[in-house]
Each structure stands twice: as structure tokens, then as C-alpha cells.
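step 3/5: co-fold with zinc ion
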Amino acid sequence: MMLKKSGQIGDLYNDSNLYKRVAMKLEKYRSEVETLTTYFEYFCKTQHTNQSDKEIFHNYKNKNFCNKISLCEECFDVMQYSIKRLQNCPYEEKPRCRTCKTPCYEKSYWKKVAKVMIYSSVRLTLTRIKDKYFF
Ligand SMILES: [Zn+2]
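step 4/5: write C-alpha cells
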């Protein structure tokens, strides 16, 4: 008989209440990915060099997506990580990551993504009104 282990990070997603999660709708997921894409591209373009055209393949609610994006290697890595976290977000209305009660980012990635989102949201909202921020 298997004993249930507790106190591990995986418990967040094994928790019986959260496991029956509704999660966000497909359209919501797509718009969150677009926000990430916009913010990451803007940050990378203004802060880094050596971008190249890349494709991110991801899957949500049994649908496959492919996003084209121009990023450096480091940003590409962080962006892919963010999308994985987003796919596992248990909320139908994604809270801002900053105020989330069940944060899911590893600390090192959290710092990198926070930097991108804060940098880009401040500058991009100077020219465009967004109703909410991702982070
Ligand atoms: Zn970059």
C-alpha cells in the first residue's frame, strides 16, 4: 500500500480540491500567453542582444499552440518556464502572481519574470492602456 507523502511541492496539484480545478478558459489562457509574449519581447529587445526567431510549442485543454517569438536564449528559457506555470495555474480567474495565495514559481525564475513584467508593464502602459497586468 502506498503511503501518502505530504509537505512536498507537488501537493499543490495533488490536493483533492485543487485537482478538481476549473482552471482558466482557453481564450483567457491565450490572452495571458499574448501578454507574456509582448512583455518578454519588449524587455529582451531593449535590454539584451542576440535575439533570434524561436517557436514555443505548448498545449492547453488538449489544443496545441505554436507561438513565434524573437528572444535571446535566457529570455526564451524563462518564457517557456512561465508558460508551463501558466498551464498549471489552478484558477479560473488568474490572480496577479504577486498576490497569489499559492505561488508556483521557483525563486530564481520568479525574480527574472518579475523583472521582465515590471519593466515592460510600466513602459508599455505609457503608450497603451491595459485593463490588468499579468504579474
Ligand atoms: Zn533576452
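step 5/5: annotate
Residues 1-20 have pLDDT under 50 and may be disordered.
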